[in-house]
Design goal:
single chain; 478 residues; Aminopeptidase; Glucose Oxidase, domain 1; 14 helices; binds zinc ion
Length: 478
Protein backbone atom coordinates (compact mmCIF):
# COMPACT_ATOMS: atom_id res chain seq x y z
CA UNK A 1 0.00 0.00 0.00
CA UNK A 2 2.68 2.42 1.12
CA UNK A 3 4.58 2.22 -2.14
CA UNK A 4 1.68 3.86 -3.95
CA UNK A 5 2.54 7.14 -2.27
CA UNK A 6 6.27 6.93 -2.74
CA UNK A 7 6.70 8.88 -5.95
CA UNK A 8 9.95 10.58 -6.77
CA UNK A 9 8.30 13.97 -6.93
CA UNK A 10 7.37 14.02 -3.25
CA UNK A 11 9.66 16.06 -1.03
CA UNK A 12 11.29 14.01 1.66
CA UNK A 13 9.39 15.54 4.57
CA UNK A 14 6.07 14.61 2.97
CA UNK A 15 7.34 11.13 2.39
CA UNK A 16 8.33 10.92 6.05
CA UNK A 17 4.89 12.18 7.01
CA UNK A 18 3.25 9.55 4.85
CA UNK A 19 5.34 6.88 6.50
CA UNK A 20 4.27 7.95 9.97
CA UNK A 21 0.66 8.16 8.87
CA UNK A 22 0.81 4.72 7.29
CA UNK A 23 2.32 3.19 10.38
CA UNK A 24 -0.35 4.66 12.59
CA UNK A 25 -3.12 3.62 10.21
CA UNK A 26 -5.54 1.42 11.99
CA UNK A 27 -5.73 -2.25 11.11
CA UNK A 28 -9.15 -1.52 9.73
CA UNK A 29 -7.80 1.11 7.32
CA UNK A 30 -4.93 -1.09 6.22
CA UNK A 31 -6.77 -4.35 5.78
CA UNK A 32 -10.47 -3.73 5.37
CA UNK A 33 -10.47 -3.90 1.55
CA UNK A 34 -8.31 -7.04 1.43
CA UNK A 35 -10.41 -8.67 4.14
CA UNK A 36 -13.65 -8.00 2.32
CA UNK A 37 -12.16 -9.55 -0.82
CA UNK A 38 -11.03 -12.64 1.07
CA UNK A 39 -14.37 -12.99 2.83
CA UNK A 40 -16.33 -12.67 -0.42
CA UNK A 41 -14.12 -15.24 -2.10
CA UNK A 42 -14.39 -17.65 0.83
CA UNK A 43 -18.18 -17.43 0.88
CA UNK A 44 -18.31 -18.41 -2.79
CA UNK A 45 -15.57 -20.99 -2.63
CA UNK A 46 -16.50 -24.59 -3.46
CA UNK A 47 -12.99 -25.99 -3.64
CA UNK A 48 -12.49 -26.38 0.11
CA UNK A 49 -15.82 -28.17 0.45
CA UNK A 50 -15.00 -30.43 -2.49
CA UNK A 51 -11.70 -31.40 -0.87
CA UNK A 52 -13.41 -32.11 2.45
CA UNK A 53 -15.98 -34.27 0.67
CA UNK A 54 -13.21 -36.19 -1.08
CA UNK A 55 -11.40 -36.75 2.20
CA UNK A 56 -14.58 -38.00 3.89
CA UNK A 57 -16.18 -40.04 1.13
CA UNK A 58 -13.24 -41.31 -0.87
CA UNK A 59 -10.63 -41.80 1.84
CA UNK A 60 -12.72 -42.13 4.98
CA UNK A 61 -11.68 -42.31 8.59
CA UNK A 62 -8.00 -42.08 9.46
CA UNK A 63 -6.82 -43.66 12.67
CA UNK A 64 -3.08 -43.55 13.40
CA UNK A 65 -1.44 -46.61 11.91
CA UNK A 66 -4.16 -47.18 9.31
CA UNK A 67 -3.56 -47.34 5.54
CA UNK A 68 -6.33 -44.74 5.03
CA UNK A 69 -4.41 -42.20 7.14
CA UNK A 70 -1.34 -42.63 4.96
CA UNK A 71 -3.52 -42.31 1.87
CA UNK A 72 -4.96 -39.06 3.26
CA UNK A 73 -1.45 -37.73 3.98
CA UNK A 74 -0.17 -38.43 0.46
CA UNK A 75 -3.32 -36.94 -1.06
CA UNK A 76 -3.16 -33.84 1.14
CA UNK A 77 0.45 -33.15 0.18
CA UNK A 78 -0.37 -33.46 -3.50
CA UNK A 79 -3.38 -31.12 -3.09
CA UNK A 80 -1.14 -28.56 -1.37
CA UNK A 81 1.26 -28.72 -4.30
CA UNK A 82 -1.62 -28.35 -6.75
CA UNK A 83 -2.76 -25.26 -4.85
CA UNK A 84 0.66 -23.74 -5.42
CA UNK A 85 1.88 -23.88 -1.83
CA UNK A 86 5.64 -23.84 -1.40
CA UNK A 87 7.95 -26.17 0.53
CA UNK A 88 5.30 -28.89 0.74
CA UNK A 89 6.68 -31.71 2.86
CA UNK A 90 5.60 -34.71 4.93
CA UNK A 91 8.07 -34.99 7.82
CA UNK A 92 8.11 -38.42 9.48
CA UNK A 93 6.40 -39.08 12.80
CA UNK A 94 6.14 -42.40 14.70
CA UNK A 95 2.60 -42.95 15.90
CA UNK A 96 0.91 -45.46 18.21
CA UNK A 97 -0.93 -48.20 16.35
CA UNK A 98 -4.04 -49.27 18.22
CA UNK A 99 -6.51 -51.60 16.55
CA UNK A 100 -10.12 -51.99 17.65
CA UNK A 101 -11.01 -55.37 16.20
CA UNK A 102 -14.44 -56.90 16.81
CA UNK A 103 -16.26 -55.85 19.94
CA UNK A 104 -19.63 -56.08 21.66
CA UNK A 105 -21.33 -55.60 24.98
CA UNK A 106 -24.42 -57.57 25.89
CA UNK A 107 -26.73 -57.20 28.83
CA UNK A 108 -27.42 -60.73 30.14
CA UNK A 109 -29.73 -59.79 33.06
CA UNK A 110 -32.31 -58.64 34.05
CA UNK A 111 -33.18 -58.84 30.35
CA UNK A 112 -30.99 -59.87 27.47
CA UNK A 113 -30.16 -57.13 24.96
CA UNK A 114 -27.18 -55.77 23.04
CA UNK A 115 -25.70 -52.54 24.36
CA UNK A 116 -24.72 -49.71 21.99
CA UNK A 117 -20.97 -49.59 22.64
CA UNK A 118 -17.59 -48.51 21.31
CA UNK A 119 -14.34 -49.58 22.90
CA UNK A 120 -12.20 -46.68 24.08
CA UNK A 121 -9.07 -45.89 22.14
CA UNK A 122 -5.90 -47.48 23.59
CA UNK A 123 -7.91 -49.96 25.70
CA UNK A 124 -6.70 -53.53 26.04
CA UNK A 125 -9.02 -56.28 24.84
CA UNK A 126 -10.82 -58.97 26.79
CA UNK A 127 -10.02 -62.68 26.75
CA UNK A 128 -11.54 -64.42 23.72
CA UNK A 129 -14.75 -65.35 25.50
CA UNK A 130 -15.14 -61.89 26.94
CA UNK A 131 -15.58 -60.76 30.51
CA UNK A 132 -18.90 -61.29 32.27
CA UNK A 133 -19.83 -59.72 35.54
CA UNK A 134 -22.29 -57.86 37.69
CA UNK A 135 -22.37 -54.11 37.14
CA UNK A 136 -21.91 -51.48 39.83
CA UNK A 137 -22.91 -47.94 38.88
CA UNK A 138 -21.24 -44.78 40.14
CA UNK A 139 -21.75 -41.14 39.19
CA UNK A 140 -18.35 -39.94 40.39
CA UNK A 141 -14.90 -41.05 41.54
CA UNK A 142 -15.96 -40.19 45.11
CA UNK A 143 -18.84 -42.65 44.87
CA UNK A 144 -16.44 -45.28 43.59
CA UNK A 145 -14.05 -44.70 46.48
CA UNK A 146 -16.93 -44.85 48.95
CA UNK A 147 -17.99 -48.26 47.59
CA UNK A 148 -14.52 -49.59 48.29
CA UNK A 149 -12.85 -52.85 47.25
CA UNK A 150 -15.47 -55.02 48.92
CA UNK A 151 -18.19 -53.81 46.56
CA UNK A 152 -16.10 -53.34 43.41
CA UNK A 153 -13.69 -56.29 43.17
CA UNK A 154 -14.68 -58.77 40.47
CA UNK A 155 -17.35 -56.44 39.10
CA UNK A 156 -17.75 -54.28 36.00
CA UNK A 157 -17.91 -50.60 36.95
CA UNK A 158 -20.20 -48.27 34.99
CA UNK A 159 -19.37 -44.58 35.30
CA UNK A 160 -22.58 -42.66 34.67
CA UNK A 161 -21.74 -39.09 35.65
CA UNK A 162 -23.98 -36.10 34.96
CA UNK A 163 -22.91 -34.34 31.77
CA UNK A 164 -21.00 -31.22 32.76
CA UNK A 165 -19.64 -30.40 29.33
CA UNK A 166 -16.71 -32.17 27.72
CA UNK A 167 -13.96 -30.73 29.90
CA UNK A 168 -15.96 -31.34 33.07
CA UNK A 169 -16.79 -34.98 32.32
CA UNK A 170 -14.09 -36.46 30.10
CA UNK A 171 -11.95 -37.66 33.03
CA UNK A 172 -14.37 -40.55 33.53
CA UNK A 173 -13.52 -41.70 30.01
CA UNK A 174 -9.77 -41.10 30.26
CA UNK A 175 -9.09 -42.23 33.84
CA UNK A 176 -12.09 -44.40 34.77
CA UNK A 177 -10.54 -47.78 33.90
CA UNK A 178 -7.52 -47.37 36.17
CA UNK A 179 -9.61 -45.97 39.05
CA UNK A 180 -11.90 -49.00 38.79
CA UNK A 181 -8.98 -51.44 38.40
CA UNK A 182 -7.39 -50.07 41.57
CA UNK A 183 -10.37 -51.47 43.47
CA UNK A 184 -10.27 -54.80 41.66
CA UNK A 185 -12.86 -54.23 38.91
CA UNK A 186 -12.58 -56.53 35.89
CA UNK A 187 -13.74 -53.97 33.28
CA UNK A 188 -15.04 -50.41 33.08
CA UNK A 189 -17.88 -48.89 31.09
CA UNK A 190 -18.53 -45.19 30.73
CA UNK A 191 -21.52 -43.18 29.62
CA UNK A 192 -20.65 -41.55 26.30
CA UNK A 193 -19.24 -38.02 26.42
CA UNK A 194 -22.19 -36.10 25.02
CA UNK A 195 -25.16 -34.06 26.11
CA UNK A 196 -27.47 -35.41 23.42
CA UNK A 197 -27.89 -38.96 22.28
CA UNK A 198 -29.82 -41.12 19.85
CA UNK A 199 -28.33 -44.39 21.12
CA UNK A 200 -24.97 -43.31 19.69
CA UNK A 201 -21.84 -44.43 21.54
CA UNK A 202 -18.84 -42.05 21.49
CA UNK A 203 -15.30 -43.42 21.55
CA UNK A 204 -12.23 -41.41 22.57
CA UNK A 205 -8.84 -41.87 24.13
CA UNK A 206 -8.25 -43.36 27.54
CA UNK A 207 -5.04 -43.70 29.46
CA UNK A 208 -3.84 -46.32 31.94
CA UNK A 209 -2.25 -45.07 35.13
CA UNK A 210 1.18 -46.53 35.64
CA UNK A 211 1.51 -49.56 37.89
CA UNK A 212 -2.19 -50.42 37.82
CA UNK A 213 -3.59 -53.48 36.07
CA UNK A 214 -4.94 -52.69 32.61
CA UNK A 215 -8.61 -53.62 32.28
CA UNK A 216 -10.71 -53.32 29.12
CA UNK A 217 -12.94 -50.27 28.86
CA UNK A 218 -15.70 -49.10 26.54
CA UNK A 219 -18.25 -46.33 26.14
CA UNK A 220 -21.94 -47.18 26.06
CA UNK A 221 -24.79 -44.94 24.92
CA UNK A 222 -26.40 -42.45 27.28
CA UNK A 223 -29.66 -44.39 26.95
CA UNK A 224 -28.12 -47.73 27.88
CA UNK A 225 -26.21 -46.16 30.79
CA UNK A 226 -29.49 -44.70 32.05
CA UNK A 227 -31.28 -48.03 31.69
CA UNK A 228 -28.61 -49.90 33.66
CA UNK A 229 -28.72 -47.18 36.32
CA UNK A 230 -32.52 -47.50 36.63
CA UNK A 231 -32.27 -51.28 37.09
CA UNK A 232 -29.57 -51.02 39.72
CA UNK A 233 -31.43 -48.28 41.62
CA UNK A 234 -34.53 -50.44 41.76
CA UNK A 235 -32.50 -53.31 43.18
CA UNK A 236 -32.32 -55.47 40.05
CA UNK A 237 -28.86 -56.97 39.51
CA UNK A 238 -27.44 -56.21 36.07
CA UNK A 239 -25.09 -58.62 34.37
CA UNK A 240 -23.07 -57.65 31.29
CA UNK A 241 -20.72 -59.51 28.98
CA UNK A 242 -18.02 -57.44 27.31
CA UNK A 243 -16.02 -58.75 24.36
CA UNK A 244 -13.22 -56.68 22.79
CA UNK A 245 -10.40 -57.70 20.45
CA UNK A 246 -8.62 -54.35 20.93
CA UNK A 247 -4.85 -54.51 20.89
CA UNK A 248 -1.73 -52.47 20.34
CA UNK A 249 0.71 -53.09 17.47
CA UNK A 250 4.25 -51.69 17.26
CA UNK A 251 4.40 -47.94 16.55
CA UNK A 252 3.79 -47.11 12.89
CA UNK A 253 5.48 -44.72 10.45
CA UNK A 254 3.38 -41.68 9.70
CA UNK A 255 3.75 -37.99 8.82
CA UNK A 256 2.70 -34.44 9.42
CA UNK A 257 1.83 -32.47 6.29
CA UNK A 258 3.30 -28.98 5.83
CA UNK A 259 2.89 -26.32 3.12
CA UNK A 260 3.69 -22.61 2.97
CA UNK A 261 3.30 -19.24 1.39
CA UNK A 262 6.78 -17.83 1.88
CA UNK A 263 6.94 -14.38 3.42
CA UNK A 264 8.01 -11.61 1.04
CA UNK A 265 10.06 -9.66 3.60
CA UNK A 266 10.58 -11.87 6.63
CA UNK A 267 10.26 -15.46 5.45
CA UNK A 268 11.79 -16.76 8.67
CA UNK A 269 8.89 -15.37 10.71
CA UNK A 270 5.95 -17.75 10.66
CA UNK A 271 2.23 -17.74 11.30
CA UNK A 272 1.26 -21.40 11.56
CA UNK A 273 -2.30 -22.69 11.25
CA UNK A 274 -3.88 -26.09 10.99
CA UNK A 275 -5.68 -29.01 12.55
CA UNK A 276 -5.25 -32.77 12.77
CA UNK A 277 -5.37 -35.18 9.87
CA UNK A 278 -5.98 -38.34 11.91
CA UNK A 279 -9.42 -39.29 13.21
CA UNK A 280 -11.05 -42.15 15.05
CA UNK A 281 -11.64 -45.36 13.11
CA UNK A 282 -15.40 -44.85 12.80
CA UNK A 283 -17.49 -42.37 10.85
CA UNK A 284 -15.56 -40.05 8.53
CA UNK A 285 -13.84 -37.62 10.87
CA UNK A 286 -15.72 -34.88 9.02
CA UNK A 287 -15.99 -32.35 11.81
CA UNK A 288 -13.17 -33.88 13.87
CA UNK A 289 -11.03 -32.75 12.26
CA UNK A 290 -11.43 -32.99 8.49
CA UNK A 291 -13.17 -29.63 8.55
CA UNK A 292 -10.31 -28.06 10.51
CA UNK A 293 -7.58 -29.14 8.13
CA UNK A 294 -9.56 -28.39 5.00
CA UNK A 295 -10.69 -24.95 6.22
CA UNK A 296 -7.18 -23.88 7.25
CA UNK A 297 -5.77 -25.20 3.96
CA UNK A 298 -8.43 -23.39 1.94
CA UNK A 299 -7.80 -20.13 3.79
CA UNK A 300 -4.16 -20.30 2.70
CA UNK A 301 -5.10 -21.47 -0.81
CA UNK A 302 -7.32 -18.38 -1.24
CA UNK A 303 -4.54 -16.03 -0.09
CA UNK A 304 -2.31 -17.73 -2.68
CA UNK A 305 -4.99 -17.48 -5.39
CA UNK A 306 -5.28 -13.74 -4.88
CA UNK A 307 -1.55 -13.38 -5.27
CA UNK A 308 -1.33 -11.74 -1.86
CA UNK A 309 2.22 -11.65 -0.60
CA UNK A 310 2.29 -11.45 3.17
CA UNK A 311 5.47 -10.06 4.74
CA UNK A 312 5.86 -13.20 6.85
CA UNK A 313 5.46 -16.87 6.01
CA UNK A 314 2.05 -18.48 6.42
CA UNK A 315 2.44 -22.19 7.10
CA UNK A 316 -0.38 -24.69 7.14
CA UNK A 317 0.24 -27.89 9.10
CA UNK A 318 -1.87 -31.04 9.33
CA UNK A 319 -0.73 -32.59 12.56
CA UNK A 320 -0.97 -36.35 12.86
CA UNK A 321 -2.09 -38.49 15.83
CA UNK A 322 -3.97 -35.86 17.82
CA UNK A 323 -6.59 -38.38 18.91
CA UNK A 324 -4.38 -40.90 20.67
CA UNK A 325 -1.00 -39.49 21.52
CA UNK A 326 -0.39 -36.06 19.91
CA UNK A 327 2.83 -37.43 18.39
CA UNK A 328 2.49 -35.03 15.44
CA UNK A 329 2.28 -31.93 17.62
CA UNK A 330 5.31 -33.02 19.65
CA UNK A 331 7.29 -33.89 16.48
CA UNK A 332 6.50 -30.51 14.94
CA UNK A 333 7.71 -28.70 18.04
CA UNK A 334 10.94 -30.72 17.96
CA UNK A 335 11.36 -30.10 14.26
CA UNK A 336 11.20 -26.31 14.58
CA UNK A 337 13.56 -26.30 17.56
CA UNK A 338 14.92 -22.86 18.35
CA UNK A 339 12.97 -21.40 15.41
CA UNK A 340 9.95 -21.49 17.69
CA UNK A 341 10.99 -17.96 18.70
CA UNK A 342 10.10 -16.90 15.16
CA UNK A 343 6.62 -18.39 15.37
CA UNK A 344 4.66 -15.21 15.86
CA UNK A 345 1.27 -16.91 16.22
CA UNK A 346 -0.33 -20.36 16.02
CA UNK A 347 -3.93 -20.92 14.96
CA UNK A 348 -5.82 -24.17 15.48
CA UNK A 349 -9.22 -25.30 14.28
CA UNK A 350 -10.39 -28.46 16.00
CA UNK A 351 -13.94 -27.91 17.14
CA UNK A 352 -15.95 -28.61 14.01
CA UNK A 353 -17.11 -26.31 11.24
CA UNK A 354 -20.27 -24.89 12.70
CA UNK A 355 -20.88 -21.13 12.43
CA UNK A 356 -17.69 -19.44 13.68
CA UNK A 357 -18.10 -16.75 16.34
CA UNK A 358 -14.48 -15.82 16.94
CA UNK A 359 -11.25 -17.03 18.48
CA UNK A 360 -9.91 -17.82 21.87
CA UNK A 361 -6.67 -15.88 22.01
CA UNK A 362 -3.68 -15.73 24.23
CA UNK A 363 -2.83 -17.82 27.16
CA UNK A 364 -3.60 -21.26 25.82
CA UNK A 365 -5.21 -21.97 29.16
CA UNK A 366 -8.32 -23.45 27.62
CA UNK A 367 -6.34 -26.18 25.89
CA UNK A 368 -8.08 -29.37 26.76
CA UNK A 369 -6.25 -31.74 28.98
CA UNK A 370 -5.45 -34.64 26.74
CA UNK A 371 -6.06 -38.18 27.75
CA UNK A 372 -2.56 -39.29 28.57
CA UNK A 373 -1.13 -35.83 28.25
CA UNK A 374 -0.04 -33.46 30.94
CA UNK A 375 -2.40 -30.83 32.29
CA UNK A 376 -2.05 -27.58 30.36
CA UNK A 377 1.24 -26.01 31.44
CA UNK A 378 1.08 -22.49 32.85
CA UNK A 379 1.01 -20.20 29.86
CA UNK A 380 2.46 -16.73 29.45
CA UNK A 381 -0.42 -14.29 29.34
CA UNK A 382 -0.33 -12.11 26.25
CA UNK A 383 -0.08 -8.36 26.71
CA UNK A 384 -3.06 -6.04 26.63
CA UNK A 385 -1.63 -4.46 23.48
CA UNK A 386 -1.57 -7.85 21.75
CA UNK A 387 -5.09 -8.65 22.89
CA UNK A 388 -6.35 -5.23 21.73
CA UNK A 389 -4.72 -5.87 18.37
CA UNK A 390 -6.43 -9.25 18.12
CA UNK A 391 -9.75 -7.52 18.85
CA UNK A 392 -9.01 -5.03 16.07
CA UNK A 393 -8.29 -7.84 13.61
CA UNK A 394 -11.50 -9.54 14.74
CA UNK A 395 -13.46 -6.45 13.73
CA UNK A 396 -12.49 -7.16 10.11
CA UNK A 397 -14.82 -10.16 10.41
CA UNK A 398 -17.86 -8.15 11.43
CA UNK A 399 -19.72 -8.87 8.18
CA UNK A 400 -19.79 -12.58 9.09
CA UNK A 401 -20.04 -11.94 12.83
CA UNK A 402 -17.04 -14.22 13.27
CA UNK A 403 -14.31 -12.23 14.99
CA UNK A 404 -15.09 -12.07 18.70
CA UNK A 405 -11.85 -12.51 20.65
CA UNK A 406 -12.05 -14.11 24.07
CA UNK A 407 -9.17 -14.92 26.40
CA UNK A 408 -8.11 -18.49 25.86
CA UNK A 409 -5.80 -20.09 23.39
CA UNK A 410 -5.98 -23.10 21.19
CA UNK A 411 -6.09 -26.81 21.33
CA UNK A 412 -3.88 -29.82 21.70
CA UNK A 413 -1.89 -29.50 18.48
CA UNK A 414 -0.57 -26.00 19.13
CA UNK A 415 -0.11 -26.53 22.86
CA UNK A 416 3.63 -27.38 22.51
CA UNK A 417 3.97 -24.01 20.75
CA UNK A 418 1.89 -21.98 23.19
CA UNK A 419 3.80 -23.65 26.02
CA UNK A 420 6.92 -22.12 24.43
CA UNK A 421 5.38 -18.65 24.47
CA UNK A 422 3.78 -18.51 21.01
CA UNK A 423 0.41 -16.74 21.17
CA UNK A 424 -2.35 -19.18 20.26
CA UNK A 425 -5.67 -18.69 18.52
CA UNK A 426 -8.37 -21.38 18.71
CA UNK A 427 -11.41 -21.19 16.43
CA UNK A 428 -14.63 -20.83 18.43
CA UNK A 429 -17.92 -21.81 16.84
CA UNK A 430 -21.46 -21.75 18.15
CA UNK A 431 -20.79 -25.37 19.10
CA UNK A 432 -24.45 -26.33 18.99
CA UNK A 433 -24.03 -29.90 17.75
CA UNK A 434 -20.33 -30.69 17.81
CA UNK A 435 -20.51 -32.99 20.80
CA UNK A 436 -23.56 -34.78 19.36
CA UNK A 437 -21.30 -36.18 16.59
CA UNK A 438 -17.87 -36.09 18.16
CA UNK A 439 -16.05 -39.48 17.99
CA UNK A 440 -19.10 -41.31 16.61
CA UNK A 441 -20.10 -43.12 13.44
CA UNK A 442 -22.23 -40.02 12.75
CA UNK A 443 -19.32 -37.62 12.24
CA UNK A 444 -19.93 -37.60 8.50
CA UNK A 445 -19.84 -35.08 5.65
CA UNK A 446 -23.61 -34.48 5.65
CA UNK A 447 -23.18 -32.66 8.99
CA UNK A 448 -21.12 -29.94 7.29
CA UNK A 449 -23.22 -26.87 6.48
CA UNK A 450 -21.53 -25.36 3.41
CA UNK A 451 -22.03 -21.71 4.38
CA UNK A 452 -20.72 -22.32 7.90
CA UNK A 453 -17.64 -24.10 6.57
CA UNK A 454 -17.05 -21.19 4.18
CA UNK A 455 -17.38 -18.69 7.04
CA UNK A 456 -14.65 -20.57 8.88
CA UNK A 457 -12.43 -20.34 5.80
CA UNK A 458 -13.11 -16.60 5.64
CA UNK A 459 -12.23 -16.02 9.29
CA UNK A 460 -9.03 -18.06 9.02
CA UNK A 461 -7.93 -16.35 5.81
CA UNK A 462 -8.33 -12.85 7.26
CA UNK A 463 -6.74 -13.65 10.61
CA UNK A 464 -3.74 -15.49 9.20
CA UNK A 465 -3.10 -12.94 6.45
CA UNK A 466 -3.26 -9.90 8.73
CA UNK A 467 -1.07 -11.53 11.40
CA UNK A 468 1.50 -12.41 8.75
CA UNK A 469 1.42 -9.05 7.01
CA UNK A 470 0.91 -6.34 9.64
CA UNK A 471 4.04 -4.36 10.50
CA UNK A 472 4.17 -5.45 14.16
CA UNK A 473 4.74 -8.95 15.47
CA UNK A 474 1.73 -9.69 17.66
CA UNK A 475 3.90 -11.82 19.96
CA UNK A 476 6.16 -8.85 20.67
CA UNK A 477 3.48 -6.21 21.27
CA UNK A 478 3.81 -4.72 24.72
ZN1 LIG B 1 -10.10 -33.23 17.02
Amino acid sequence: MLTLYMTKSLPLFILAGALVAAQSDSISQQYSATSQKLIAAALEDQEGLARLQFLCDRIGNRLSGSPSLEKAIAWAASEMKKAGLENVSTPSVKVPHWVRGKESATMMAPIEKPLAMLGLGMSVGTPKDGISGDVVVVASFDELTALGKANVAGKIVLFNPDWKGYGGTVMYRSDGASKAAELGATAALVRSMTGTSLQTPHTGAMVYAEGIRKIPTAAISVEDAALITRYVKSGLPVKVRLMMEAHQLPDADSHNVVGEILGSEKPEEVVVLGGHIDSWDIGQGANDDGSGIMATFQAVALIKKFGLKPRRTIRVVFWVNEENGSAGAKAYREMVGAAVSNHIAAIEMDGGAEKPVGFGFGSGGEGRRRAGGPAAAPQPVTSKAAFDRAVEIGKLLESIDGGKMTPGGGGADISPLTASGVPGFGVHTVGTHYFDWHHTTSDTFDKIVPLEFQQNVAALAVLSFVLADMPERIDKMQ
